[in-house]
Structures are given as structure tokens and as C-alpha cells.
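Sharing a chain and its predicted structure for anyone who wants a worked example. Both blocks are below, sequence first, C-alpha cells second.
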Amino acid sequence: MVVVIVIVLVIATGGSDESTTPAPGRTTAENTAQETGQEPRGDGEREDLVSFQLEDRSEAGITNIWLTWTIKNSSSEKSDYSWDWEAVDADGTRVENGSQLETDVQPGQTARGEYPTTLKSTKDIELNITSFNRTAGY
């Protein structure tokens, strides 16, 4: 029953972005993650995804590549975020894809997350956001 209500809420609010865009990166002096993509396009809720990138934590010959992200809730209400993404190599082949979720982010709050991947390298990999949704949290 709850799933049906959430789906209806998303459809009713029209709160989604179904276009494919490069994932936002982040630039800091201490950042060792591979920067991928560009800044968000400036279309409201999508700007709440401040950074979404690959981080290579491999060491001692063991591959260990993670997705990391930062969400900053710029709305005036508690929000839930979900987005679909793909990793594409230099030939344009999708090498991995998935969905991420960040829930109960308070107004003005920043949330950070991470998730392991099965990627073998970050070289020449581009991250794209294929859909992005922000809904009111309850």
C-alpha cells in the first residue's frame, strides 16, 4: 500500500528529471577521487545533488572503487531523493548502472553517502544521471 502511495505522489507532483546528464563533480584540495562530469544544469531540485563521483580506494593490488555523493536539501521541507545512474566507458559502452536513495534529509541539511561498485578502473569512465527525483519525506 505504501509503495502505491509513493508512486502516485511522484507522478502527481511531476517531481522527476528523466534526461541524462553528466554527474556533478566536486573540487577540493584534498580530494583524491576521480572527477567526472560537470556541474548540475540549474533545474531546481537536481541542483541538490552537489556531487556524485567515483572514488578509487584500491590498494595492494585489490580493486576497490566506490560511488560517493553529497546531497544538500535546498527545499523548505524534509525530502527523499532517488536517482538512477550509469557508468559509461570511452567507447560509449555502459559498464555499470544502478539506483541510489537518500531519505529524510532535513531542510538545509547535507547528507553524504557511498556505495561500492564492481568497476575495475575509473580511467575514462563517465558517470551520467539518467533520472533524478525529490519527494517530500514523511
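Comments welcome. Strands lie at 16-17, 21-22, 49-56, 65-72, 79-88, 94-105, 110-116, 126-136.
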